[in-house]
Amino acid sequence: MRSNYIFCSTHETAKLPLYVTTVGLWEHQTETVRPGGFPDYQMHQVLDGKGELTVDGKSCIVGPGEVFFLYPDIPHAYTPLSRQWQVAWVSFNGREAGQMLKHAGIVESGTGRLGDNRLLYALERMLELAAEDEQTANRERSKQLYGLLIDLKHLLVSPFHADMDIDRLKPVLYYIEHRLHDPLSLNDLAGIIDVSPQYLCRVFQQTLRMRPIEYVNQQRVNRSKQLMFRDPDRKMYEIAKLVGFENASYFCSVFRRRTGMTPDAFKKLHGLGRQVTME
Taking a C-beta distance cutoff of 8 angstroms, is the pair 29, 78 a contact? Predict the structure, then answer.
Protein backbone atom coordinates (compact mmCIF):
# COMPACT_ATOMS: atom_id res chain seq x y z
CA MET A 1 0.00 0.00 0.00
CA ARG A 2 1.29 3.46 -0.91
CA SER A 3 1.79 6.33 1.50
CA ASN A 4 -1.50 7.94 2.42
CA TYR A 5 -2.57 10.58 4.92
CA ILE A 6 -6.21 11.30 5.69
CA PHE A 7 -7.24 14.21 7.86
CA CYS A 8 -10.76 13.51 9.13
CA SER A 9 -13.23 16.30 9.64
CA THR A 10 -14.60 15.97 13.16
CA HIS A 11 -17.47 18.43 12.80
CA GLU A 12 -20.00 15.60 13.13
CA THR A 13 -18.03 12.70 14.63
CA ALA A 14 -16.74 14.72 17.61
CA LYS A 15 -20.18 14.18 19.12
CA LEU A 16 -19.43 10.45 19.29
CA PRO A 17 -17.79 8.85 22.35
CA LEU A 18 -14.92 7.73 20.09
CA TYR A 19 -13.82 9.21 16.77
CA VAL A 20 -10.89 9.24 14.34
CA THR A 21 -8.94 12.44 13.73
CA THR A 22 -6.28 11.20 11.30
CA VAL A 23 -5.31 7.89 9.73
CA GLY A 24 -2.42 7.14 7.45
CA LEU A 25 0.46 5.02 6.27
CA TRP A 26 4.00 6.09 5.47
CA GLU A 27 6.12 3.86 3.26
CA HIS A 28 9.02 5.47 5.09
CA GLN A 29 8.23 7.11 8.40
CA THR A 30 10.55 10.07 8.94
CA GLU A 31 11.83 11.34 12.26
CA THR A 32 9.13 12.92 14.41
CA VAL A 33 9.93 14.87 17.59
CA ARG A 34 7.14 16.24 19.78
CA PRO A 35 8.43 17.83 23.02
CA GLY A 36 4.87 18.81 23.94
CA GLY A 37 3.27 15.57 22.82
CA PHE A 38 0.28 15.24 20.49
CA PRO A 39 -3.29 16.36 21.33
CA ASP A 40 -4.93 13.00 20.46
CA TYR A 41 -4.39 9.35 21.30
CA GLN A 42 -2.33 7.52 18.70
CA MET A 43 -1.75 3.91 17.72
CA HIS A 44 1.05 3.04 15.27
CA GLN A 45 1.61 -0.35 13.64
CA VAL A 46 5.10 -1.10 12.30
CA LEU A 47 4.89 -3.07 9.04
CA ASP A 48 8.49 -3.10 7.88
CA GLY A 49 11.92 -1.95 9.08
CA LYS A 50 12.88 -0.74 12.53
CA GLY A 51 12.63 2.50 14.44
CA GLU A 52 13.36 3.91 17.86
CA LEU A 53 10.57 5.19 20.09
CA THR A 54 11.34 7.55 22.97
CA VAL A 55 8.70 8.43 25.55
CA ASP A 56 9.53 10.61 28.54
CA GLY A 57 13.22 9.96 28.03
CA LYS A 58 12.92 6.14 27.81
CA SER A 59 13.77 4.51 24.47
CA CYS A 60 13.03 1.16 22.83
CA ILE A 61 13.31 -0.41 19.37
CA VAL A 62 10.11 -1.26 17.47
CA GLY A 63 9.93 -3.49 14.41
CA PRO A 64 7.47 -5.49 12.28
CA GLY A 65 4.52 -6.92 14.19
CA GLU A 66 4.84 -4.36 16.95
CA VAL A 67 2.59 -1.44 17.80
CA PHE A 68 3.15 1.60 19.93
CA PHE A 69 0.59 3.75 21.68
CA LEU A 70 0.89 7.42 22.57
CA TYR A 71 -1.32 9.14 25.11
CA PRO A 72 -2.22 12.81 24.54
CA ASP A 73 0.27 15.51 25.53
CA ILE A 74 3.05 13.06 26.51
CA PRO A 75 6.48 14.14 25.18
CA HIS A 76 7.79 11.64 22.64
CA ALA A 77 9.85 11.09 19.52
CA TYR A 78 10.28 8.31 17.00
CA THR A 79 12.88 7.95 14.29
CA PRO A 80 13.79 5.33 11.64
CA LEU A 81 16.77 3.04 12.17
CA SER A 82 16.51 1.27 8.81
CA ARG A 83 16.48 2.44 5.20
CA GLN A 84 12.76 1.87 5.09
CA TRP A 85 10.46 2.09 8.08
CA GLN A 86 6.85 1.46 7.07
CA VAL A 87 4.32 2.55 9.66
CA ALA A 88 0.51 2.80 9.66
CA TRP A 89 -1.29 4.82 12.29
CA VAL A 90 -4.58 6.15 13.55
CA SER A 91 -5.11 9.18 15.78
CA PHE A 92 -8.32 9.37 17.76
CA ASN A 93 -10.13 11.01 20.62
CA GLY A 94 -13.47 11.10 22.42
CA ARG A 95 -14.73 10.82 25.97
CA GLU A 96 -14.39 7.01 25.93
CA ALA A 97 -11.00 6.82 24.19
CA GLY A 98 -8.99 6.32 27.38
CA GLN A 99 -11.41 3.74 28.76
CA MET A 100 -11.32 1.76 25.53
CA LEU A 101 -7.53 1.56 25.73
CA LYS A 102 -7.72 0.52 29.37
CA HIS A 103 -10.07 -2.29 28.35
CA ALA A 104 -7.17 -3.63 26.26
CA GLY A 105 -4.77 -3.22 29.18
CA ILE A 106 -3.10 -0.10 27.79
CA VAL A 107 -2.92 2.48 30.56
CA GLU A 108 -0.03 4.62 29.33
CA SER A 109 2.16 5.31 26.32
CA GLY A 110 4.18 2.26 25.33
CA THR A 111 4.56 -0.72 23.02
CA GLY A 112 2.88 -4.05 22.36
CA ARG A 113 3.22 -7.00 20.00
CA LEU A 114 0.59 -8.37 17.65
CA GLY A 115 0.15 -12.03 16.80
CA ASP A 116 0.26 -11.21 13.07
CA ASN A 117 2.56 -8.95 11.05
CA ARG A 118 -0.07 -8.03 8.46
CA LEU A 119 -1.71 -4.62 8.42
CA LEU A 120 -4.64 -4.67 10.81
CA TYR A 121 -7.90 -5.06 8.90
CA ALA A 122 -9.52 -2.09 10.62
CA LEU A 123 -6.61 0.19 9.72
CA GLU A 124 -6.65 -1.07 6.16
CA ARG A 125 -10.39 -0.45 5.94
CA MET A 126 -10.02 3.10 7.32
CA LEU A 127 -7.39 3.87 4.69
CA GLU A 128 -9.41 2.44 1.81
CA LEU A 129 -12.70 4.24 2.48
CA ALA A 130 -13.68 6.47 -0.41
CA ALA A 131 -13.68 10.20 0.15
CA GLU A 132 -16.70 11.07 -2.03
CA ASP A 133 -18.99 11.17 0.99
CA GLU A 134 -16.65 12.44 3.69
CA GLN A 135 -19.14 12.38 6.58
CA THR A 136 -20.18 8.79 5.88
CA ALA A 137 -16.54 7.72 5.53
CA ASN A 138 -15.60 9.35 8.84
CA ARG A 139 -18.50 7.67 10.66
CA GLU A 140 -17.40 4.33 9.22
CA ARG A 141 -13.82 4.99 10.34
CA SER A 142 -15.06 5.62 13.86
CA LYS A 143 -16.96 2.32 13.77
CA GLN A 144 -13.85 0.52 12.55
CA LEU A 145 -11.83 2.15 15.34
CA TYR A 146 -14.35 1.03 17.95
CA GLY A 147 -14.15 -2.55 16.71
CA LEU A 148 -10.36 -2.41 16.63
CA LEU A 149 -10.11 -1.24 20.26
CA ILE A 150 -12.66 -3.85 21.36
CA ASP A 151 -10.57 -6.61 19.75
CA LEU A 152 -7.21 -5.18 20.73
CA LYS A 153 -7.03 -7.05 24.03
CA HIS A 154 -7.06 -10.33 22.09
CA LEU A 155 -4.94 -9.11 19.18
CA LEU A 156 -2.05 -8.14 21.44
CA VAL A 157 0.43 -10.78 22.50
CA SER A 158 1.87 -9.98 25.92
CA PRO A 159 5.67 -9.78 25.95
CA PHE A 160 5.51 -11.43 29.35
CA HIS A 161 3.96 -14.67 28.01
CA ALA A 162 0.57 -14.08 29.60
CA ASP A 163 -0.80 -17.48 28.54
CA MET A 164 1.92 -19.31 30.44
CA ASP A 165 1.57 -16.99 33.41
CA ILE A 166 -2.19 -17.46 33.67
CA ASP A 167 -1.62 -21.22 33.66
CA ARG A 168 0.84 -20.84 36.50
CA LEU A 169 -1.68 -18.70 38.39
CA LYS A 170 -4.44 -21.31 38.17
CA PRO A 171 -3.58 -22.97 41.52
CA VAL A 172 -3.69 -19.54 43.18
CA LEU A 173 -7.01 -18.66 41.55
CA TYR A 174 -8.44 -22.05 42.57
CA TYR A 175 -7.25 -21.53 46.14
CA ILE A 176 -8.82 -18.08 46.30
CA GLU A 177 -12.11 -19.37 44.89
CA HIS A 178 -12.38 -22.07 47.55
CA ARG A 179 -10.99 -20.11 50.52
CA LEU A 180 -12.71 -16.73 50.21
CA HIS A 181 -14.10 -17.11 53.72
CA ASP A 182 -10.58 -17.35 55.19
CA PRO A 183 -7.96 -14.63 55.71
CA LEU A 184 -5.83 -14.51 52.56
CA SER A 185 -2.45 -12.80 52.77
CA LEU A 186 -0.11 -12.02 49.91
CA ASN A 187 2.53 -14.31 51.42
CA ASP A 188 0.03 -17.19 51.63
CA LEU A 189 -0.93 -16.79 47.98
CA ALA A 190 2.68 -16.55 46.80
CA GLY A 191 3.53 -19.69 48.76
CA ILE A 192 1.00 -21.76 46.82
CA ILE A 193 3.19 -21.65 43.70
CA ASP A 194 6.46 -21.08 45.56
CA VAL A 195 7.23 -17.58 44.29
CA SER A 196 7.98 -14.29 46.01
CA PRO A 197 5.13 -11.87 46.79
CA GLN A 198 6.75 -9.37 44.42
CA TYR A 199 6.77 -11.86 41.55
CA LEU A 200 3.15 -12.82 42.22
CA CYS A 201 2.12 -9.16 42.12
CA ARG A 202 3.93 -8.70 38.81
CA VAL A 203 2.26 -11.72 37.21
CA PHE A 204 -1.19 -10.62 38.44
CA GLN A 205 -0.63 -7.15 36.97
CA GLN A 206 0.56 -8.52 33.64
CA THR A 207 -2.23 -11.07 33.22
CA LEU A 208 -5.25 -9.80 35.18
CA ARG A 209 -4.36 -6.09 35.31
CA MET A 210 -4.78 -5.91 39.08
CA ARG A 211 -2.95 -6.73 42.29
CA PRO A 212 -3.64 -10.07 44.04
CA ILE A 213 -5.53 -8.53 46.97
CA GLU A 214 -7.60 -6.46 44.52
CA TYR A 215 -8.55 -9.72 42.82
CA VAL A 216 -9.43 -11.31 46.16
CA ASN A 217 -11.69 -8.38 47.04
CA GLN A 218 -13.30 -8.49 43.60
CA GLN A 219 -14.11 -12.17 44.08
CA ARG A 220 -15.41 -11.54 47.60
CA VAL A 221 -17.72 -8.80 46.36
CA ASN A 222 -18.97 -11.08 43.56
CA ARG A 223 -19.62 -13.88 46.08
CA SER A 224 -21.49 -11.47 48.37
CA LYS A 225 -23.80 -10.56 45.49
CA GLN A 226 -24.60 -14.24 44.99
CA LEU A 227 -25.39 -14.60 48.70
CA MET A 228 -27.70 -11.58 48.62
CA PHE A 229 -29.66 -13.13 45.76
CA ARG A 230 -29.84 -16.54 47.43
CA ASP A 231 -30.94 -15.18 50.81
CA PRO A 232 -32.11 -11.54 50.66
CA ASP A 233 -32.91 -11.54 54.39
CA ARG A 234 -29.43 -12.54 55.51
CA LYS A 235 -27.87 -9.81 57.64
CA MET A 236 -24.89 -7.91 56.35
CA TYR A 237 -22.48 -8.93 59.08
CA GLU A 238 -23.21 -12.58 58.22
CA ILE A 239 -22.50 -12.00 54.53
CA ALA A 240 -19.31 -10.12 55.42
CA LYS A 241 -18.07 -13.06 57.48
CA LEU A 242 -18.98 -15.63 54.82
CA VAL A 243 -16.89 -13.83 52.21
CA GLY A 244 -13.86 -13.28 54.44
CA PHE A 245 -14.26 -9.78 55.89
CA GLU A 246 -13.69 -9.22 59.59
CA ASN A 247 -16.54 -6.76 59.97
CA ALA A 248 -19.49 -5.41 58.02
CA SER A 249 -18.22 -1.83 57.92
CA TYR A 250 -15.04 -2.76 56.08
CA PHE A 251 -16.98 -5.06 53.76
CA CYS A 252 -19.40 -2.24 52.88
CA SER A 253 -16.45 0.09 52.23
CA VAL A 254 -14.84 -2.39 49.82
CA PHE A 255 -18.19 -3.16 48.16
CA ARG A 256 -18.83 0.52 47.54
CA ARG A 257 -15.31 1.10 46.23
CA ARG A 258 -15.67 -1.71 43.70
CA THR A 259 -19.29 -1.15 42.63
CA GLY A 260 -19.99 2.52 43.28
CA MET A 261 -22.84 1.71 45.65
CA THR A 262 -23.47 0.27 49.09
CA PRO A 263 -24.72 -3.32 49.55
CA ASP A 264 -28.05 -1.86 50.68
CA ALA A 265 -28.33 0.19 47.46
CA PHE A 266 -27.39 -2.89 45.44
CA LYS A 267 -30.20 -4.88 47.04
CA LYS A 268 -32.71 -2.10 46.44
CA LEU A 269 -31.61 -1.81 42.81
CA HIS A 270 -32.31 -5.51 42.26
CA GLY A 271 -35.47 -5.68 44.37
CA LEU A 272 -33.95 -8.03 46.92
CA GLY A 273 -36.31 -7.74 49.86
CA ARG A 274 -36.26 -5.47 52.84
CA GLN A 275 -33.57 -2.96 53.70
CA VAL A 276 -30.61 -4.58 55.40
CA THR A 277 -29.37 -3.48 58.81
CA MET A 278 -25.86 -3.22 60.14
CA GLU A 279 -25.16 -5.29 63.26
Answer: yes
